[in-house]
Sequence to fold (1220 residues):
Amino acid sequence: MAALQEKKSCSQRMEEFRHYCWNPDTGQMLGRTLSRWVWISLYYVAFYVVMTGLFALCIYVLMQTIDPYTPDYQDQLKSPGVTLRPDVYGEKGLEIHYNISDNRTWTSLTHTLRSFLAGYSPAAQVDNINCTSKTYFFQESFGAPNHTKFSCKFTADMLENCSGLTDPSFGFKEGKPCFIIKMNRIVRFLPSNSTPPRVDCTFLDMPHQALTPLQVEYYPPNGTFSLHYFPYYGKKAQPHYSNPLVAAKLLNVPTNTEVVVLCKILADHVTFDNPHDPYEGKVEFKLKIQK
Amino acid sequence: MVGGFSILLWVGAVLCWIAFGIQYVSNPSASLDSVYLGTVLAVVVILTGIFAYYQEAKSTNIMASFCKMIPQQAVVIRDSEKKVIPAEQLVVGDIVEIKGGDQIPADIRLLSAQGCKVDNSSLTGESEPQSRSSEFTHENPLETKNITFYSTTCLEGTATGMVINTGDRTIIGRIASLASGVGNEKTPIAIEIEHFVHIVAGVAVSVGILFFIIAVCMKYHVLDAIIFLIAIIVANVPEGLLATVTVALSLTAKRMAKKNCLVKNLEAVETLGSTSIICSDKTGTLTQNRMTVAHLWFDNQIFVADTSEDNLNQGFDQSSGTWTSLSKIIALCNRAEFKPGQESVPIMKRVVVGDASETALLKFSEVILGDVMEIRKRNHKVVEIPFNSTNKFQLSIHQTEDPNDKRFLLVMKGAPERILEKCSTIMINGKEQPLDKSMAQAFHTAYMELGGLGERVLGFCHFYLPADEFPETYSFDSESMNFPTSNLCFVGLLSMIDPPRSTVPDAVTKCRSAGIKVIMVTGDHPITAKAIAKSVGIISANSETVEDIAKRCNIAVEQVNKRDAKAAVVTGMELKDMSPEQLDELLANYPEIVFARTSPQQKLIIVEGCQRQDAVVAVTGDGVNDSPALKKADIGVAMGITGSDAAKNAADMILLDDNFSSIVTGVEEGRLIFDNLKKTIAYTLTKNIAELCPFLIYIILGLPLPIGTITLLFIDLGTDIIPSIALAYEKAESDIMNRKPRHKKKDRLVNQQLAVYSYLHIGLMQALGAFLVYFTVYAQQGFRPTSLFHLRIAWDSDHLNDLEDNYGQEWTSYQRQYLEWTGYTAFFVGIMVQQIADLIIRKTRKNSIFKQGLFRNKVIWVGIASQIIVALLLSYGLGSITALNFTMLKAQYWFVAVPHAILIWVYDEMRKLFIRLYPGSWWDKNMYY
Fold:
């Protein structure tokens, strides 16, 4: 009970706190005199400077061990991701809705495509060489200027009807929209053994939806990524490299219904069956064209 | 303990759920991490609560025998009819009748009484029967003659009275409710844990709010800022510590139980360690609780007998003829007998039928002479007169075992002065000599000396009845005493005492050197109390009381300078007249105090007095009436063998062997657990910074999140649990029994130094080490450290599936997520590796690890092994389960933080070295925790 009587009043506590902040008898602030504070701060400054120095040293050593051209490990990029343009995300993944009769609903989509293809204009590709080979373009030496390697040209006109040059509306106006499919870059990745990787778009089977098979027109023809764009040697070796693209023009999309389109990349070393990653080797999107 | 700490955890859990609520409202696909975290926190609190309850219930079960009270009956006059009703049905105003032998059923004011005497010892400690009548004699109800009290006994006579108080309102009921009323005080360890919670909560909340403000200033969304705030607070809560502390305490409790200290209340384990005053009972605790022959006087010489527990080593000179006679008297003039069938039991442990002194004499002679029963058979007893309080002697006449000697032997023992009166000769060296004045003087000196030792002295004499007057056929009559009972031959004196337990003096010395004051509180006579106090060292050999000084200098007690005396013997009568201030002065000024003839209530007063000195008080007791003092004490210690159920119920700890030295073992364990808890907490707090930094860096510099909250839980509740328990097995660094008890307000469990050193030194080093592993993983996968800064928004975006790294490779959202988990695993492993170093450095606070020995505490290695195994299991075993956010980490990343771990060890060895080299220096003051 003796302990219970020691409850301090609020003012006492405040007084004690004030005394702690500044104790006039000993000249202590917050429990230390000024000189003590200087000493302890000096110690901490020194300690932290040394620790930061050591950490910086460790990072420096780490950076020295890193190869500038090829990452040490690529085990987490076994198979490339696939992306779609235009890319409009809804609650669950890509959702592209537009109304043919309302220009405003699809101009933003075509705008996305146009600005994406700006990187594939002949002017942007001026530093790249023309390739015609149907095999991998291996380069062991740094033959290009500035100790780099050559990259192959990919220009928007290779996408023909979906290049935006002949049809500025990319087919959106007539309900046969173009979608551009891009495969992610992975350093020194070889997608297949001999045949070039190919894009294949289908309607995703939905119950209670009897659909005629999807008809697609691919650009470049057959929807292939030519093998001479591979392997990719990294940003430092190929500063001007641009990903090859495939455009898919969907010809028979039913109007006023939401359909799910799945575009896979068919190649020996590209997998699309990872249950966790919806964008590995494939891209899936919902499409609803209204009239 | 459960209060403060689990509230912190509950707050954490609720915050998590709130965070999820907020996230869910803004984005219904929010991850369930916060829900898991909150649930786990809640489960942790509940589990540890159940665990602590189970631990205590286990101890409490032993108390199950309590509350079995025999229903008490009372004779009451109602409706002019005598009725017998249960005592609890009595009401105020009932007229009850009491007769000798009854227990008083309530507090009663007597209306009439015939020779009524009551035994008030359970209430006041007065062992003399008190007479009661109907007269009002004193203002104080305890003093007046016309009130009898509930639970006391009427010894003789009859009385009629009116009930004035029943149940809880009776005097003893008030004592009992006092006992339950004082039970709510917090134990010192609970106060320390609360203090620790304040520190942790303070750090968590202030860092959280600081970064909330920073986040808002950096134009983060307010909802995000709130989620950061919650994450920071949760990262700071040491989830596993509550369980660890409980386990550590129960481990110690188990260890103490092995050493005969049964701990009922887990927190009491530590309380004993901070004890600064022990108020010890005498009988049974300090002493063996059995009369034993201590001294003999014959041939004008005092001999010392062995009073140790086994009593076998009686090394005094037994060649004298006087001893032969004396031993015969001791063996023959004794009515006590061993219970049959105990031949295999050691003599001192055999059960005896007979009173305490006769038992002592029987065992004494059995040890020295061998089979006493056989001796008695050979010396056939003809007649005997048992001891009674008027005669004050005991006498028997025997045929002798010598077949040629037809004389009868008369043997007698009794109060020495009465025996001496009956003697005219004295035996010296086997020869009878006349008892002259000088011999009588020698007898008195010896008698006084033995009496002054607080011992009970008996005189022995014998007489061979002349064969002519008392032929073999003589018929002795004990009623008429037709034989001589004077002019006998005095043989010797023998004194007995309840001797101290042999381990006690050592234990008291240990207490002394440990800075614990031992106060004896006993109902016994002051002289006996003082003698025992001296022999066990409670009053040390060279210290004197005021009375001793007065006697030595031959001056009046009042003239003695009180400052000269180190010791004090205070009786209950003196204590009654003292004001609290005087008692405080007494307790403060005398290092050695004995309270004699004290009542149970006075025991409470003494305990309160000690607590006013800011002391942590341990009290030992066994009676019902001790229970308030036991409750009031910071730690009540009840006796396991002699203790009453009420005392055991009120106590926090039970000495299974009633032995004082067990308390000292308890103190040692208590101090050790305090030190080890300090180490455990330091160990646990350290990683909090390493767990907190990722969030801060994430908020300020926008790195991909280095470690997730679920992963944090696996450190707090996975890898760190066994190691922190292992620290409870650590041996003491130095002799912990050679330092003062900790001051309960100054020596905190978690002090500023501990927090600062753990957070700002080792914790920071750990954070840097863990970040190094994290950066290594990212850099080797393609993201250099510099590119990670301010990458957060792009990194966390689900809609960006071609994020470029430094090599121009493009990552999908899930690929990044997986890399992030690899980062979590790497950061986790970094912390784990450095926690091994942290565990090793925490083994000592001052000594070098090498002095303490790396391998003495095997459990530490079990802890380290468990850490590594759990981490390996998480990474390689569960790496494929994505919900746990672990991935299979490459082998070399496990070693990236090793240099940092070594650095931590080296730094801490340096700290300890400087502390040892420059004690009291600036370094010592700031770095020793």
Observations:
- Chain B touches chain A through 48 residues (CB under 8 Å).
